[in-house]
């Protein structure tokens, strides 16, 4: 039996380089990258085997970037959420933010929660959007929330306390680098890792399908024989 890509997670990297290669400002790459998300989510929504898709949009470390780029990304996020709501609804995709949202402005937080509320009934695909997300931060927040219960922490209780509890089957990073950059460190314990040199703005549903095809033929042993 072939593997099922139930939970696909993608590190959407390479936006800045895509723009620089074209002599444009880095932020033009972020703009184009936001449009690619629509194609990939629509593909995933209509793929029978994908139940969860987690996309890394902004890390806990990305605040270190120049203020102008961070400010642009915040405006882009607001624009994206307003513009794409109909895409979520038409494709039956629920939007779920993961990460520490408290660092966003009240208006961005309100927009995020509004998008979550308006798409909560959608059952075709559960989409996690990682915003001010870091796996170490996620695990620490989960442990702090469990500490109040005074009972022993177990693998199941910690998993359930994470922002996104589902184990990742297929982890993809675009942009050519071979690292996880603090993404889903717990959930990816037995994920199959795929790295492509394609920069995120050039990534397509066709390439995703070809990665899924390769993933399906891998022997996943989970430590057994
Ligand atoms: C990923 O693209 C998007 C974010 C991290 C917000 P980058 O902005 O990291 O693009 P490169 O890696 O510099 O090309
Ligand atoms: C990872 O990309 C974060 C996102 C794609 C949102 P980065 O570009 O921030 O990662 P590093 O700095 O190359 O590890
Ligand atoms: Mg990068």
- Please tell me how large the radius of gyration is: 17 Å
Mean pLDDT: 97
Unreliable stretches covering 5 or more consecutive residues? none
* Beta fraction: 15-25%
- CATH architecture call: 3-Layer(aba) Sandwich
Order of helices and strands: EHHEHEHEHHEEH
Strand order of the largest sheet: 3-4-2-1-5-6
> Can you tell me the overall shape?
globular
- CATH fold-level topology: Undecaprenyl pyrophosphate synthetase
In helices, the fraction of residues equals: 40-55%
Q: What would you give as the CATH superfamily?
A: Decaprenyl diphosphate synthase-like
Taken together, the total number of domains comes to 1
CATH top level?
A: Alpha Beta
Bound molecules: 3-methylbut-3-enyl trihydrogen diphosphate, magnesium ion
Instruction: Label the structural class.
Output: alpha/beta
Largest sheet, described in full?
6 strands, parallel
Query: How far is the first residue's CA from the last residue's CA?
Result: 15 Å
Total E-strand runs: 6
Instruction: Please report the number of helical segments.
Output: 7
């Amino acid at each position: 039996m072939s593997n099922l890509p139930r939970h696909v997670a993608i590190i959407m990297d390479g936006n800045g380089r895509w723009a620089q290669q074209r002599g444009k400002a880095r932020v033009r790459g972020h703009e184009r990258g936001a449009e690619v998300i629509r194609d990939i989510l629509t593909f995933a929504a209509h793929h029978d085997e994908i139940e969860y898709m987690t996309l890394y949009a902004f890390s806990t470390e990305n605040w270190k970037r120049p203020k102008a780029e961070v400010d642009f990304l915040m405006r882009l996020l607001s624009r994206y959420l307003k513009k794409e709501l109909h895409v979520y609804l038409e494709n039956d995709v629920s939007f779920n933010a993961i990460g520490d949202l408290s660092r966003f402005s009240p208006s961005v937080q309100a927009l995020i929660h509004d998008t979550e509320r308006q798409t909560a009934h959608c059952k075709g695909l559960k989409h996690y959007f990682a915003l001010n997300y870091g796996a170490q931060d996620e695990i620490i927040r989960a442990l702090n929330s469990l500490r109040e219960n005074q009972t022993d922490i177990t693998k199941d209780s910690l998993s359930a306390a994470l922002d996104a509890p589902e184990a990742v089957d297929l982890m993809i990073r675009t942009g050519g680098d071979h690292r996880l950059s603090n993404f889903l460190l717990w959930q990816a314990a037995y994920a199959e890792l795929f790295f492509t040199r394609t920069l995120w703005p050039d990534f397509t549903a066709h390439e995703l399908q070809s990665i899924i095809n390769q993933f399906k033929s891998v022997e996943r042993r989970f430590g057994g024989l």
